[in-house]
Structure formats: structure tokens, C-alpha cells
Amino acid sequence: MTPRTLFEKIWQAHEVVAETAETPAVLYVDLHLVHEVTTPQAFAELESRGLPVRRPDRTLGTLDHSTPTDAAELLGRIPIRDASAAAQVAALERNARAHGIELLGLGDGRRGIVHVIGPELGRTQPGMTIVCGDSHTSTHGAFGTLAFGIGTTEVGHVLATQCLLQRKPRCLAVTIGGRLQAGVGSKDLVLAIVGRLGVGGGTGHVIEYRGEGIRALSMEERMTVCNMSIEAGARAGMIAPDATTFAYLQGRPGAPAGEDWEHAVERWQALPGDAGAAFDGEVSLDAAAVEPMISYGTNPGMVTAVGGSIPEAGDAAFMKALRYMGFEPGERLAGKRVDLVFIGSCTNSRLSDLQAAAAVLRGRKLARGVRMLVVPGSQQVKRAAEAEGLDRVFLAAGAEWRESGCSMCIGMNGDVAASGQYVVSTSNRNFEGRQGAGSRTLLAGPATAAAAAVTGRVTDPRELAA
Amino acid sequence: MDVTATTPIRTIRARTVVLAADDVDTDQIIPARFLTTTRRDGFGDALFADWRFDGEGQPRPGFALNDPQTRGAGVLVAGRNFGCGSSREHAAWALRDYGFRAVVAGSFADIFRNNALKNGLLPVAVPGDALAWLTAHPGVEVTIDLEATTLAAPGLAPAPFPVEPFARYRLLNGIDELGYLLSRSGAIDAYERSRGA
Ligand code: SF4
Question: What is the rounded average pLDDT of the residues B74-95?
């Protein structure tokens, strides 16, 4: 048999109908994650056609995108201030009830950002196909799944048929040799990868990340890497499951238990690509050479080392981006003014991210005039962080400690920066106005973001290490 | 406005408006603050909101869509990697609602391309020389022929563009995609049985 990649194995196992020259494959979806922003129109479509949800048991809902991160609103002590957001929340509550879909509602202790809760609850498992009306569904690929974002019409297709019409993408190997240096995190690694590939470099492809530099990462770090695959244009990123994956999943509520667990692990061990399996392309990068990274422009491919400089010259788009950011070609990033720091998003809001930020903030205060929001990825992450006293570290430094949600990653719930403000953010997108009209985002890892909060300037976090 | 994908599309003949920019992301096409809605229409007014309007809601002079001459243009011409970023289908809805029937670009982001094709908005990726010509000739009337999969204009030889064959067949014949998927229910049943799913 021809050697197959991880991607090919999962793809073939989910072909209900194989693709032909004339028709795409009918691809089966194991897990469909739904949230309040990209589903109301899909449910309305089903309703107008009188269709049921085919597999409510394969559908899991959460409230995260337009949901407040303010405890009083969230826990119902006061109504949600934004009436249209409240209507979206109510619509998903109603649709979930009507169709028998499990929804982790506003008061649910398991609620959180859709890409944080899937893995955390053990619902994300190797070998699965996972989709969601959200482009960062690529996060789940860290478990050796084929996971990708879809539009609202496709959400309707999956609700009605548990399937999607798909053309088989190509597969790009991104091989990471070496290991990250101390003080450098997986966000730095993925920013370096996106910088290398460019924002369109992965279009039409699924990326498989592999090599020593990937194997050495924890599951949370792997999720950060796969999360940003879409920023290079790839719909999905994947990492072959291994002992690290199994150790993370064992004992989680959604994971198989007992004898089922043994069988599952056996199946999962067959998933990694066969020796000699061919990719459509390969890019290599040395993890040991990666420095703490930061973005300086208006797309996630415009990145440099925190200690580095903006390129000397570029095309019209480059100049337009710098004008928006208020930067000059050739300038150094270190020392740039920072107004706001955001620790959160499906890229960097897990416990290890909060630990990395807290390690920098412990015993320190925010620089004068700097505002800092810390938004855990889920209510479970929030409780775990509080159990370790991280909330007290953040609060003592002068930061805000919020309920979980997407918050300032997308700025839909009122958590936004003012026009012209500089935000060092652990999220994944620095597009113009992403964090509020006119806001300027510098993407970085949690340690770099925390260092900026302390100094009020772009700072290499290693300078603050005790 | 009718945004169903079940209205057949054969040819699109319309004037262009040029937005000479690469990597136009969906946050620019429709900023997130307009997504707190449960409807799929009415997004046209918010299309490119932060490029079209200043902080006071006044039109920004110099932005192509604010030029009265571009009013009624049905084809948007942009650069490479159009529609990158978020999966929000609202981007395709907003372009349709504003009145665009096709976007011509050097290339498209995958999810945007899918979303566009599902909403009767044709993503037309043309070769570099044709794109350069179109960028240099704003306002020209183009003819996009989905049957022949070519784009032509007076002074521009027909340029080929790729369309996924099923999407082309579906658009030409007004086939409803969900209806097609539902017609495969037998195969889906069999698949679920075979996997004990
Ligand atoms: S945290 Fe940001 S990127 Fe992640 S799902 Fe929410 S809005 Fe999307």
C-alpha cells in the first residue's frame, strides 16, 4: 500500500462519497462545534426547510464571541448591555433547546472559548474530523485531527447532514528541528512560521507540523501552533498524536475510559504518517534560532524579533501598514510605547499562558497609564488559575481579571481599544481595527505581553527574568 | 435583495471598481462589531466600514467606493489573497448586499472563496497580466462568462479563471447544494452504520 500521511488517513476514513473530477467528496464530520455568532442564520435555514439536526449528539455549543466577560452581566445579575449580543445568545439558547444540542450556557462552569473547551473536555480526540463556524478551528489539529473553519451556509449543511462537500486539500510539511531556547515560547515559534510562509503561503493546504521542535512541545503549546495555521492561509494544521497527546486526554470527561481507552489508544497509534509518505511541499525551520517575536504591521506575517527592527523597505502595502501603525521603516521595535495589554484568545489563554504572564508580573506593577486585561480561555482555566493564586498576581499588578470569552481578540463584546492606541496582544490577528476601530495591535506571546505591561514599552521578556 | 445561491448565473456584465490592495482581510470587508445580528441581510451599509467612513461616520474622500462614478459597479477588483482571515460569511453577504456580483483578484483565501460561491458571488482569480490591466482601467465594463470561465473587457483578451467544476455546474444550473447533500442521505446512513457511529 502507498504510504499515507496523517492527513490522508483521516481524510480517507471520513469519505462518505469519494471525490470525482465533477463532484467534491462528501466528508463526514465527527464533531461540530457551534457558537452564537455564526449559527443563527444556519438554524433559520433549517427551520425554513423544516429540517431536523441530524446528529445533535455530535454537536456541542458554547457562548464566547459576543458574550460579555463582565461577571455581573454574565452571571445574570444585570442584563447583557449590548441588546444585539443578548439576542444572539438567546438565539443559540433557543436553537440548542429546540434541537437537543448540548450548550455550555452562560452560567455553566465548563463554558469558554470554543477552541479551548473542546480539548479541555476531552471532546477533541485524535483521528476526528472537527468543524466550526470559526477559522481558528485549526487549533484542534494539535490532537491529530482534521479540523477546519467553515462558513455559516456550511454550518447549516453539517447541522442537516453531518457532512460537508469538500475538495481534498494539498498537504504541506512544516518541519521544526531543534528545540526552543529558554524564555522563548510556542507563540514565538508560530509567529516565526507565519512570518516565513506569509499570510497566503498555506492557501489550499493543510499543514502538518513535525520534527523534534514540535514533539518537545506540550499539548497547550501545540494548540498555539496549530491555532495560527489559518494566519498562513492554511485551513488546518495538524500534529501526529503521541504519548503527550494521550497523557493530556486520559481521564478527561469526554475521553474514552477503561477498556475503551485502551482500544482508542491502539487506534490512535496507527494515525501518524507512514515512513516515506509524500507531501506536496516542505518548509523547515530551526526552533533553536527563534527569538521572542512580535508583529509590527497589519497582518500576522509582518513579524520580527522583539529585539529586531522593521524592514528598511517594502512595497506599497508594507508602507500603508506602517502608516496605519505609526511606524517608520527600519525602526527598532523595542522601546515602542504600549497603551494596553491583552492576555487571552484561543491562541494564548490556557493555564500555561497565564502562568507565563504571571511569572513576569509577580511582584511588579503595570507601568503608569497602561491598562491590562487578562481573560482566561474558559471557566475551568479561570478556576485553575485562581487555585494557584494567579488572579491575585494579576490584580496586585493592577490588571483586570475577567470571565472567559473571546473578548478583545475580536472586540465584539465591548472590550476594545481606542483609536490610535497600541495593544500588545496574545491573540492571533493584527488586522486594521481588529481590536477596535483605529486600534493598533502588536501580536506577541504571553511573556512578551506581560513585559510590555510592566515597562509600558515593547520589551524582550528575558530582560525581566529573575 | 435575493442572496440565494439557487438563482442560476451564466454571465455577469458590469462595471468594475478597483481596490488595489493585497491581503484584504474579512475584518476590513465587514468589521466584527457589525456581526452581532441574527440576520443575513443589511450588511451592505457596513461593507468596508472603516475604510469608507471616518470616526464621525463621514465618507473618506479618496476611497474608491465613495467616488460617485463607481456607483452601480457590480464587480470589485482587488489584489492577491482576497478575503483572508476569519470565516465570517458576513463578508460575502456584505459584498452581495452592496451590489457586487463578482470579485476579481489575483487569488482568494480558501474559506472566503467557499463562502462567496455559496452566495452567488463569483470569485474570479485571473492571471497577473489581466489583473494589472484591470487595475489600470477602473470602471471598465467586464463580461464574466461562467460557461467559458473567462473574463473579458473591451481592450482585454478573454482571461481564463479557475472554478471548481461542481460549483460551476451548481451555479449555472441553480442547483441547491444542501438539497444535493440531502440526496446522499442513503450513503450517509450506510457510512454511520458501517462505523457504528
Ligand atoms: S478567541 Fe478570537 S480567534 Fe479565537 S475563537 Fe474567539 S474571536 Fe476567534
Answer: 96
A132 lines ligand 1 (CB under 6 A): no
Q: What are the Cα distances from residue A460, in Å, to A257, A318, A330, A405, A451?
A: 44, 24, 18, 28, 7
By DSSP bridging, strand B11-18 and strand B141-145 are antiparallel
Residues 6 or more apart in contact with residue B195 via CB below 8 angstroms: none
The total number of structural domains in chain A stands at 3
Question: What's the rounded mean pLDDT across residues B58-80?
Answer: 95
Bridge partners of residue A147, in order along the sequence: A130
* Spatial distance between the Cα atoms of A123 and A125, rounded to a whole number of angstroms: 6
Pair A339, A423: CB distance under 8 Å: yes
pLDDT tops 70 at residue B3: no
Give the tens place of pLDDT for each residue, A238-254.
Answer: 999 999 999 999 999 99
User: A65: Cβ below 6 Å to ligand 1?
Assistant: yes
Q: Is the pTM of this model over 0.90?
A: yes
What one-character DSSP code corresponds to residue A409? G
CB contact at 8 A, A234 and A190: no
* B11-194 is classed CATH 3.20.19.10: yes
- Residue A74: predicted pLDDT: 83
**What distance in angstroms lies between residue B14's CA and the mean position of ligand 1's atoms?**
37
Q: Are residues A178 and A132 in the same domain?
A: no
Closest CA of chain A from B165, distance in Å:
6
B39 burial type by CB count under 10 A (0-12 exposed, 13-18 middle, 19+ buried)? exposed
Cα separations (Å) of A241 from A2, A210, A246, A258, B5? 21, 11, 7, 20, 40
Nearest to A17 by CA among B180, B184, B192, B176: B184
Kindly state the average pLDDT of the residues B56-83. Answer: 95
Kindly report the CATH number assigned to the domain that includes residue A324.
Answer: 3.30.499.10
Strands B102-105 and B75-77: parallel
Please give the Cα distance from A135 to B161 (Å, whole number). 26
**Cα separations in angstroms, B167 against A19, B124, B188:** 13, 13, 21
Does some domain include residue A307?
A: yes
The residue assigned the cell 452566495 is: B119
Q: Which chain A residues contact residue B111 at CB under 8 A? A: 135, 149-151, 235
Centre of ligand 1 to C-alpha A312, Å, is 32
CA distance A176 to A212: 6
Query: By mean pLDDT, which of A27-31, A146-150, A315-319 is the weakest?
Result: A315-319
Chain length of chain A = 466
Same domain, A50 and A131: yes
Distance A406 CA to ligand 1 centre (A): 5
Cα B30 → chain centroid: 13
Q: Yes or no: say if A203 and A46 are a contact pair by the CB < 8 Å rule.
A: no
Q: Which domain holds residue A357?
A: 294-464
